[in-house]
Amino acid sequence: MDAFVKKLCDRYKVSESDVQTLLDCMEEVHFKKRDLIVREGTKNSNLYFIKTGIWRAYYHKDGADATIWFASDGEAAFSVWGYADNAYSLINIEAMCDSVAYSISRATLNQLYHSSIGLANLGLRLMDHQLLLQENWLINSGSPRAKERYLTLIKETPELLQYVPLKYIASYLWITPQSLSRIRAEIASSSQLFSSLKNKI
């Protein structure tokens, strides 16, 4: 099984045949670093599966960007407003690096949902996944566990550090860039201490 297909199957609990049926109806699209896939205030009902790359969703708040989520290889990305209701998006979705994705319109997707129970269930899981992302982000607002959340984020998606500026990661964690720098310094110091103690054993 193709690694990309396997990621989709594992993440969204859908069969290989259903994933392949969906991909056969999708268009491969390419984006450059900093391209906006979805622009705030416009309509975009497309569903995207990221083959390679990292994207972030954000909105403007008090003159600054507030990052809501990151998505990487094998993950779906879309504007909930456009996807669910063909309404104007309240967020931007931006490519953090050169990316390849598969795209499909909601109209075509609806036809597929009607043709397959497996794909219809996939549609439900996509919305569930997106709602969980946004709910977790809201619940963690102001959370004192920023260090723990940073470590979890980097463990799950280590390539973020390669492609995403720290100010965007700080925004996602609801902390300032200065606070994130202190957290990173603490982690580096702890790692050095652990290595030093290990070498003495």
UniProtKB/TrEMBL annotation:
Pfam families: cNMP_binding. PROSITE patterns: CNMP_BINDING_3. Residues 14-112 form the Cyclic nucleotide-binding domain. This is Crp/Fnr family transcriptional regulator. It comes from Bacteroides thetaiotaomicron.
